Amino acid sequence: MFEPLPALADETSGKHYTIGVLAIRGDVEALKEWTPTAEYLSNELPGHHFQIIPYNLNGLSQAVINDEVDFLLTNPGQYIELATKQGAAQLVTLRRHRIGGTPMAVFGAVIFTRSNRNDINTLSDLKGRRLMAVNANAFGGFRMAWGELDKIDIDPFYDLGELGYTGFPQDAVVHAVSTGKADAGTVRTGILESMAEEGKIDLDDFKILNSQSVPGFPFLLSTPLYPEWPFVKSRHTSNALADEVTQLLLQMDGSDSAAIAAGLKDWTVAIGYERVYELYKRLRIGPYAGLDKVTLLSLLRDYWGWLLVLAAVVVLVTLRAYLAERSKHAGQEYLKAIVSSAVDGIITIDDDGLIRAFSQSAENMFGYSVDEVIGRCADTLIQKPDHSLYPQHLNNNIHTGTTNILEVGLHEAVGRRKDASVFPLEISINEALVGNQHLLVVMVRDITDRKHAESELIQYRAHLEDLVEERTTELAAARDESERANVAKSQFLSRMSHELRTPMNSILGFGQLLEQDTEGLSASQRDSIRYIMEGGRHLLVLIDEVLDLTGIESGRLRVIIEEVNVSELLKNCISLIQNQAGARHIELIDNISDKGYRVEADYTRLKEVLLNLLSNAIKYNREHGQITLDSELTDNQRLRICVTDTGEGLTEDDIAKLFTPFERLNVPNIEGTGMGLVITKSFVKLMGGNIGIDSTKGKGSTFWVEFPLVRG
Fold first, then answer.
1. What digits encode the pLDDT tens for the residues 350-406?
2. Helix 328-340 vs helix 304-325: crossing angle, to nearest 10
3. Which of 92, 143, 328, 584 is most buried (most C-beta within 10 Å)?
4. pLDDT in tens, 278-301
């Protein structure tokens, strides 16, 4: 098996690395698909821990910008944008496969409608219709299809009746078409087949638009094929670590659990994404966005030299017509007046390389008068061995007379003044025909101020980089110190809790012995024993909750995400707290148990969460009150479980303190440690859920938790 490089192993021992994954079928599917790959890398690189973090498109881009992920796995479209703007680098390309099939390092998109839509048979029929896609920036979920519509001059942003987006997972697009919410939809190849294999759809209910057939490609297809997803390193990730990860991925066997879970045969060497760049260039998106946005200001800014040359050419053409009617002397005076009015220096050179005209601006720039330079070699004005004002190859063009006006470019040089001082120049050299004489028109601009500004900018950037590096070092030191303090805190709390448990168990043991033999004890003594037992049990609960909290914070507490039957779990919880509710004459109304919901969660931890919420609803309720269990489905396919009481309700200040350790509501005669909701929230987040509260003072409170719903 591959051995890590010794130098890298020492440098990054015990490090934690994150792999951001574009969750095209939702967070749960992404974790299920790619966590084995992270575990494979962790096992093969001792002392290194890799973790999968699912993202949507915008979230993954922001994570790369903020250097929050070390590696990422995303679609080719997002990769080329991150490579261009954020310095991301491709390592390998994945190859997916179907059982018994050939590994594929390419994929495409499929555009589809319902099979009973006889009015939609081609892409042209989508004009005026509603098309559902994943996201405007999704590659397989929109931009591939956009490329095909562009080929037939359909602009999806103007020619469709409506262009809608569902976001991830891509399954939502299929559901939108299936239920009639959209006339057609587009997803990446393989989604329809996967949903059919999972029993979620019947492929016969759909028909494919612009159907393509590629030998050896097993999926329904509407577009050209593009290279598969790349495994990418972020700009801050070391090349040495990237090399190790690359070798491990290339060595992954198709029979490995990580490969099976990811639905891929293996990884292959990095494939070029020229076809993706070509698509983005045609659509003017990504790195090519804004290429067609040309304004007068941008033309003046970017092509001032050429525009100035063009203006000079116009002047010379006009001059030629004038010279046809006037004498040569009058023409020269006219040209001199025009040249003298120009801001930049204008110099004309004959075919022998001698100066024939020298504008007032050129005089001011070089310190020579016209009389001092006319007839002299033009190279007198340039610091050797810099560029000549009279390149030799132009001499050949002049003598052959093959062109009327020949642009030869814009470049920089070092000018030399009469006093031998030098300064930076920007030079534009062009050929012009005046009468029967070939001349070179040379325009020069003093760029001393610009060079000073550039130098200051370079120094400023260097200083800024030093400040950033210094600040980064300080932040890293502060982070390390914070992490050490957090570890020390967790270790202290854990050891303290264990140390307290031993004497407390002894106290409770002796207290139980005293409870069993109270003969001869006074009422006051028996009350003291009861206080000892109640206080001891309360302290043990507090110790257990501290241990749970430190376990969560240190990452030792693990959850097992599985399919949980909500009805069975709630019935179990209700039976456990029934007596507690009955003691206060509180009615329990269960509106969930008969609906057959199933969620993705850890059974034991979810049970603890619900028991805590139900217990609080009883404790903080009024006598003869009610507790109602309700549920609702959120837009992102999650189940919300609500526990509503008829207690006094909470103020905004109370709500702000609910999830703070050791903070308790100021309610008399109600025991507690102030840790229950803190641990409950930690459990919920650990399972990938959400928790919240809605409360009105004087009317009661509703605590709710959300978890991914299991469909089917």
1. 878 888 888 888 888 899 988 888 888 888 888 765 555 555 444 444 444 433 333
2. 160
3. 143
4. 999 999 988 887 665 555 565 565
Tokens of 509: 């043991």
**Predicted model pTM:** 0.42
Cis peptide before 169 (omega within 30 of 0): yes
Which uninterrupted H or E stretch holds 690? Answer: strand 690-696
Query: Cα(271)–Cα(103) distance, rounded to whole angstroms?
Result: 14
Residue with tokens 């492929």: 203
CA distances from 478 to 267, 466, 472, 473, 483 (A): 39, 18, 10, 9, 9
Both structure tokens of 146: 């956009």
H helices, E strands: number in the chain:
22, 25
CATH topology classification for 6-102+228-288: D-Maltodextrin-Binding Protein; domain 2 (3.40.190)
Yes or no: say if 145 and 155 are a contact pair by the CB < 8 Å rule: no
Cα separation, 74 vs 20, whole angstroms: 8
b/e 210-225 (16+ beta carbons within 10 angstroms → b): bebeeeebebbbbbbb
Task: Name every residue whose Cβ is closer than 8 Å to that of residue 216 and which is 6 or more positions away in sequence.
Answer: 102, 104
What is the rounded CA–CA span in Å between residue 243 and residue 429?
49
Q: Give the homologous superfamily in CATH for domain 562-708.
A: Histidine kinase-like ATPase, C-terminal domain (3.30.565.10)
| Per-residue pLDDT tens over the stretch 606-623 | 888 898 899 889 988 999
CA angle 458, 461, 466 (to 5 degrees): 130
Q: Specify the amino acid at residue 365.
A: M
Fold exhibited by the domain 106-226? D-Maltodextrin-Binding Protein; domain 2 (3.40.190)
Quote the tokens at residue 418. 């009469």
Low-confidence residues in the chain, pLDDT < 70: 1-13, 97-102, 254-265, 290-307, 321-342, 384-410, 486-502, 531, 534-556, 662-674, 712
Nearest Cα residue to 78 out of 32, 143, 167, 173: 143
Specify the CATH class of 304-446 in words.
alpha beta
